């Protein structure tokens, strides 16, 4: 993938809309589509608090170095899910190779001491691959410090059929009912920040510092937008050959908001920038907005980006804010390179 290049740097103090227009004029290759959200933002950088639709390998290269404090993401799992526009079934080694440019860019855009929380699910039973070990090895190989591993217990097993050899040691199967959140730091364990912007309560700190997080996965009841991602069931004109069970899981595996809330509160300060390079339906952007952080949301799919923009807009309406709330002056002290324009 060629690097994203612009012929000139934009002058300072442009609004985000003007900066985007400038970058578009001076881009040496077509820019990704930016769904402006909020459309009248004047917070500065063209990428800040934006839903950006396109290949994040390219978009990440357009972001300045050291502008992000926390990355939370869940890459496509490569288990054949029916994503909108992404082929989710590469040979395993190719999949790992495909991820490397993302890891390098994440490392570049993080501030020193910035955190990377990587959510990854165990692979299938028969074709088991130690994907969490392999990704941890990739990231440690790049120099990331591995801080910890959080076990997100989902308790999703209701109807079991895949026992392997039932009641026999011949070949029994274990079913994972959890996912991992592997947490890394760039260069240092410490993330500098203004103590006044640490907004986690004592109760939350005690709860979140126990690495076993029992959180239910997202449901259509809690998040109505999920309904639009499932094919309609039992319709009269349904295809004669219904899609396979895998196909009906045609959703982007959205994060539960509670999971993101905990990671944001535990690992970042108010006013920090939180990036999700595989942002899907915008859970990270939504919760970052709610917790008074800035977000950068990237995703290949226009459909998911539109859902994300709608969720952020709804969040802001509920918070009664026209756009992301600037911090009160007392908290504006510079901490970390990019918080100067918070
Ligand atoms: C596991 S899902 C993430 C879902 C997200 N955590 C949420 O809460 O909705 C992975 C996402 O990666 C996106 N994706 C796949 N390849 C991509 C690429 N090259 N650049 C940007 N996004 C990509 C897919 O469209 C999908 O939404």
Strand order of the largest sheet: 1-2-9-8-3-4-6-5-7
Class by alpha and beta content: alpha/beta
Helical stretch count? 9
Small molecules bound: S-adenosylmethionine
State the distance separating the first and last CA atoms.
32 Å
Describe the protein:
The chain has 342 residues and is of the alpha/beta class. It has one domain: Rossmann fold, CATH 3.40.50.150. The protein contains 9 helices and 9 strands. It has a 9-stranded mixed β-sheet, with helices on both faces. Helix 2 packs parallel to helix 3, helix 7 packs across helix 8 and helix 8 runs parallel beside helix 9. The protein is globular.
Topology overview:
Layout: H1 16-25, E1 33-35, E2 50-53, H2 56-62, E3 68-73, H3 92-109, E4 110-120, H4 131-141, E5 145-153, E6 178-185, H5 202-208, E7 212-214, H6 245-248, H7 257-267, E8 273-276, H8 283-290, E9 294-299, H9 302-318
Parallel strand pairs: 2-9, 3-4, 3-8, 5-7, 8-9
Antiparallel strand pairs: 1-2, 4-6, 5-6
Residues 55-57, 74, 76, 83-84, 86, 252-255, 278, 280-281, 283, 298-301, 304 line the site of S-adenosylmethionine.
